[in-house]
């Protein structure tokens, strides 16, 4: 066997090994991306919420008026009933009268209350 053929065989096997390694890495990256996408989308609502359902509201501090005790308000809050859907991600919620905030909420502020 001539040295040129031996070098050719070595180069060919090396390129096949590298090619197979690249194919395996691409598959691993694709599965990793799919798993990340699945985990990232778990917390999102993919369909429209039902009117008449009950929700717990995540009240952000900037929504509360000045000089209110935010922690006590939230701890005394109970599940609230949805009254109306404005858009696919904006809803009107029936609040207690002592809440001095707007009754319109975005979907990201609502958590479905499961009984």
How would you portray this structure in words?
This protein is α+β, with helices and mostly antiparallel strands and 115 residues long. The chain has two domains: 1-44; 54-112, no CATH class. The protein is built from two helices and five strands. The protein has helices at residues 3-40, 70-75; strands at 54-57, 80-85, 90-94, 104-106, 110-112. Strands 4-3-2-1-5 form a five-stranded antiparallel sheet, with no helix packed on it. The longest helix has 38 residues, at 3-40. The chain is rod-shaped and about 95 Å long. 5% of the residues are buried.
Tags for this entry?
single chain, 115 residues, alpha+beta, 2 domains, five-stranded antiparallel beta sheet, 2 helices, 5 strands, 38% helix
Task: Produce the secondary structure layout.
Layout: H1 3-40, E1 54-57, H2 70-75, E2 80-85, E3 90-94, E4 104-106, E5 110-112
Shape: rod-shaped
Give the N-terminus to C-terminus distance in angstroms: 79 Å
Number of helices: 2
Round the mean pLDDT to the nearest integer and report it: 76
Main sheet record:
5 strands, antiparallel
Based on helices, strands and strand pairing, what is the structural class? alpha+beta
- The gyration radius over C-alpha positions equals 28 Å
Q: Per DSSP, what share of the residues sits in E-state strands of 2 or more residues?
A: 15-25%
Low-confidence segments: none
Could you tell me the number of beta strands?
5
Spatial arrangement of strands, main beta sheet: 4-3-2-1-5
């Amino acid at each position: 066997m001539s040295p040129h053929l031996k070098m050719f065989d070595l180069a060919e096997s090396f390129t096949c090994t590298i090619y197979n390694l690249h194919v395996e890495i691409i598959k691993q990256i694709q599965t990793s991306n799919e798993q990340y996408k699945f985990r990232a989308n778990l917390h999102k609502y993919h369909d429209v919420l039902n009117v008449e359902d009950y929700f717990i509201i995540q009240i952000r501090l900037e929504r509360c008026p000045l000089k209110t005790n935010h922690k006590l308000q939230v701890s005394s809050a109970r599940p609230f009933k949805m009254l109306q859907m404005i858009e696919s991600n904006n809803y009107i919620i029936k609040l207690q009268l002592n809440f001095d905030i707007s009754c319109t909420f975005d979907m990201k502020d609502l958590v479905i209350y499961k009984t």
